[in-house]
Design a protein that fits this description.
Number of strands: 26
Low-confidence stretches: 198-202, 689-722
Mean pLDDT: 84
Number of helices: 24
Structural class: alpha+beta
Shape: elongated
Helix content: 25-40%
């Protein structure tokens, strides 16, 4: 062999020897130096963390009957992250799944896309990293096919999950009170410090109503389970487990039977008005409160079924629910958010203000057909002169001109120098001080997250109103004309002197019109204080929180927020007058034939005129007269007189409550039921016989072979006793 070849062979031997030495060094490093670390990693790869979701608590009525409950159901979900790994982006998988589920492919693709600023409903509003539910309550056969053929359906899962169920008809009749759930977003999860469960059915959060107000108590606490798995990914055992804690049950003071009746009475009143030719009457609100501040019924019309939010809502459905700024949709809780002029039901505050200003309850006051104040004529709603009458009779006959004169007298003795309002620090007028002390112009603090303030037109309010509309907003100075239309003439005057608090504004406000606006809840709360002798409450829908084992964790009581600055004798005088309204006044015909000897009802009609529209019909009442236990208020805008529209419907509510004219009493004798309880067998025992129980939580027997999978739910081992 030539020397050159020998050198090349020597070099090759050196290279081979170097590779062997490097390989040996690497083997030593891996086995000796890093052995412990790799062993630890190997052990970690043999375990898997599984989030165990909790079952959301139930919302019960005052007898323990469910309004919102949970049922276990088979849910098919799609994981977008896994689908996107397919060569076609998951198109073929979704086509096969759509066929299996019997739904259009286009609908399935819409529901599995993520909502963005440019992508509207239907779409997935939750985290893009969690499974998206596309079908609930599927058959066992469908679930098995998904599970048994994973190659055909990669990224698709079928799991037993708790599904929220709104019990009908109460779920619709009280939709705005109950609120609704929607998939929780990543931002909300981070804000609330909640773990991502990976379960589409439980990554939901209350967005309004009771569901939002008590979301933390209802949702419970998720658990954590560590399982061991083999190389094939099969579960071989449980390493450790932190049990999930089911959410607490919320017992409300809503009476399910009365809630249904009140909603139907409200709806019937609106439908009757429409049938009589008034197509403008399309909405309304009604509420029943105890005189201690508990909400017994709260109805808002129109309503809807809250399950639309969890089953996938289209853009059209969303727009119908929300409505427009001019005509809000059924999602609005008109009891707490609707703002209407109260009309003559407001006169109880004006009476109190007059007495506080020195007017006597023992004097007589003139009730002419009209009065001239500040150069304007104010009439008594077309009624002729009624002569001299007491303040009691003025309330009974609802004489506007008596209250015009009272308001003008108070206005003249007020701080007239402050009537040209140039600062938001202008003092409150004397009459408005009384109105504010009755709880108007502010939130009641009810345990619902949506509530408006209403409007008490004080000088401060007038300053901001003028500032926002003289040259901006409605722009009175641009559109107002001295000799234009009626509206243009008003805008012209408002441009020049819209910041002046005038006598005319005072007298109109005294009968609950003009700029005065209240929510039905505020009006009912004020009448609660009138009925109970002067105590104002922050009302409550929730009554108690029960643990999954049945322990009463917390009793929820209405909070006292103040007392009316009115003598008890004056309040008694007003209550007696309102009794006269029903027996001989503006509501006498309305309550004709009603057995007032069995349950004495006192009340006040209200008819608030609105330019270019029918009046808002209002009726506020309480009973029994001498020992008031309940307050019933109804407001229906754009409908007509209080005695003609709301009044008859309120009479029906009293009949429903006590069962006086053939109807079955929702609350016999006016008695509130006791709290429901859970017995030793885990049964919820209602305080009275109620509706048939919903289907129990189910775990399909045909899925028993898959129970070893790391997919679990916690459930309440609870049955309902009827």
């Amino acid at each position: 062999m030539i020397p050159a070849s020998r050198r090349r062979l020597a070099i090759l031997h050196l290279v081979v020897a170097s590779l062997l030495i490097g390989l040996g060094a690497r083997l030593w490093f891996v086995q000796v130096m890093s052995g412990t670390a790799y062993a630890s990693q190997a052990k970690q790869e043999l375990t898997e963390h599984v989030i165990v979701p909790s079952v959301r608590g139930e919302v019960l009525d005052d007898t323990g009957s469910p309004m919102v409950d949970n049922q276990s159901a088979l849910v098919v979900s799609v994981n977008l992250a896994e689908l996107e790994q397919q060569s076609d982006g998951g198109v073929a998988v979704l086509h096969r799944l759509a066929t299996l589920l019997g739904m259009p492919y286009s609908k399935l693709t819409e529901e599995t896309r993520t909502c963005t600023a440019k992508v509207h409903q239907p779409c997935w509003a939750g985290s893009p990293y969690q499974p998206i539910p596309v079908a609930q309550n599927v058959s066992d056969q469908v679930a098995l096919q998904v599970l048994e053929t994973p190659k055909e359906y990669p990224g698709v899962s079928a799991q037993v999950q708790p599904v929220t169920n709104y019990v009908e008809p109460i779920g619709t009749d009280a939709a705005q009170v109950l609120g609704y759930l929607q998939p929780i977003t990543a931002q909300e999860m981070k804000k609330r410090g909640l773990p991502e469960t990976g379960f589409s059915g439980v990554d939901l959060v209350g967005q309004s109503g009771i569901e939002a107000q008590y979301d933390q108590q209802l949702r419970g606490t998720t658990g954590d389970k560590t399982v061991s798995v083999n190389a094939a990914g099969q579960v071989t055992g449980t390493v450790s487990q932190i049990q999930a804690k089911s959410g607490d049950d919320l017992v409300t003071s809503i009476n399910g039977t009365l809630q249904k009746d009140v909603y139907n009475d409200l709806a019937n009143a609106i439908h009757k008005t429409e049938q009589e030719g008034n197509s403008g009457a399309t909405s309304g609100a009604a509420i029943v409160l105890t005189t201690t501040g508990r909400v017994v019924a709260m109805a808002s019309y129109p309503s809807y079924n809250p399950t639309v939010w969890t089953k996938g809502i289209s853009q059209k459905q969303f727009e119908q629910l929300v409505g427009t700024p001019e005509n809000a949709g059924p999602i609005l809780n008109r009891v707490t958010q609707g703002q209407y002029s109260p009309g003559s039901t407001w006169k109880v505050t004006s009476t109190a203000a007059a007495v506080a200003d020195g007017y006597s309850l023992n004097s007589d006051y003139n009730c002419p057909a009209s009065v001239n104040i500040g150069g304007r004529t104010f009439s008594n709603d077309g009624e002729p002169s009624m002569g001299e009458m007491s303040l009691s009779e003025a309330l009974i006959q609802s004489c506007d001109t008596v209250f015009y004169e009272l308001a003008n007298g108070i206005y003249q003795r007020d701080d007239v120098k402050a009537d040209n309002v140039t600062s938001p620090k202008a003092p409150v007028q004397e009459m408005q001080k009384m109105e504010l002390r009755w709880g108007f112009g502010k939130q009641t603090g009810i345990d619902l997250p949506e509530e408006n303030f209403g409007t008490v037109p004080t000088r401060e309010w007038l300053y901001y109103f003028w500032k926002d509309n003289a040259h901006t907003g409605q722009d009175w100075c641009k559109y107002g004309k001295q000799n234009g239309s009626y509206v243009q003439q008003i805008e012209y005057d408002d441009c020049r002197s819209g910041n002046d608090w005038t006598a005319g504004q005072s007298v109109i406000a005294s009968i609950g019109q003009g700029y005065v606006e209240v929510t039905p809840l505020q009006l009912a709360d004020a009448y609660v204080a009138l009925a109970n002798g002067g105590t104002l409450y922050s009302p409550r829908v929730g009554e108690a929180l029960l643990s999954p084992s049945g322990k009463v964790l917390e009793k929820i009581n209405p909070q006292v927020t103040g007392h009316l600055p009115v003598a008890k004798s004056t309040l008694a005088y007003i209550r007696t007058a309102l009794q006269g309204v029903v027996t001989s006044g503006t509501a006498a015909a309305t309550f004709g034939g009603f057995p007032l000897s069995k349950v004495c009802v006192a009340g006040k009609t209200g008819t608030a005129q609105a330019y270019g529209k029918q009046a808002t019909s209002v009726f506020a009442s309480f009973a029994p007269c001498n020992n008031p236990k309940y307050v019933v208020v109804m407001m229906i805008p754009n409908s007509g007189y209080g005695a003609d529209v709301s009044g008859p419907a309120v009479k029906d509510v009293w009949d429903d409550l006590y069962g006086l004219q053939g109807n079955k009493a929702a609350m016999p004798g006016g008695r509130l039921p006791k709290l429901p309880h859970i017995n030793a067998s885990g049964e919820i025992v209602p305080s009275t016989t109620s509706v048939t129980s919903p289907a129990p939580l189910r775990s399909p027997a045909s899925l028993a072979a898959f129970t070893a999978l790391p997919v679990t739910t916690s459930s309440k081992a609870r049955r309902r006793k009827r």
